[in-house]
Amino acid sequence: MIRPQGTPVSLYEQVADLPLMIEPERRERRERDTSSGFTRVTTTFVLEGEGETGRGEDVSYDTEDHDALAESSEFGFAGEYTFAEFSDALDDIDLFPRTEPEPERDSSYHYRR
């Protein structure tokens, strides 16, 4: 797509108004021992709706942040949105519940979002 001014439209702009249906989310935790002598933990968010599945992996570095996530309840993502509405809704959700007082690293906010 090209804007009237000749500036390309971003991918986000192309999908922002598309409908999105989410049933209750689930999370899948993965662990793997590394050659550096520590266990690497990640959590995958699985969002399903209308027969489709989307996955996004939280690659925050600190196991404590993944432990707190595993102990928390669902975020309440279920519902009907546009992609833009869902993105805006994430601004109002504490993506690090049960982490006192903050995630181990500030950069973790970017990994989970």
Q: Can you characterise this structure?
A:
- A hairpin with a 2-residue loop joins strand 3 and strand 4 (52-58).
- 24% of the residues lie in helices and 30% in strands.
- The strands form 2 sheets. The protein has a 3-stranded antiparallel beta sheet with strand order 2-3-4, with helices on one face. It has a two-stranded antiparallel sheet with strand order 1-5.
- With 113 residues, the protein is an alpha+beta fold.
- The protein is built from 4 helices and 5 strands, in the order αββββαβαα.
- The longest helix is centred in the middle third of the chain and has 9 residues, at 63-71.
- The chain has helices at 11-15, 63-71, 83-90, 108-112, and strands spanning 19-22, 26-33, 39-49, 52-58, 79-82.
- The chain has one domain (11-102).
- The mean pLDDT is 88.
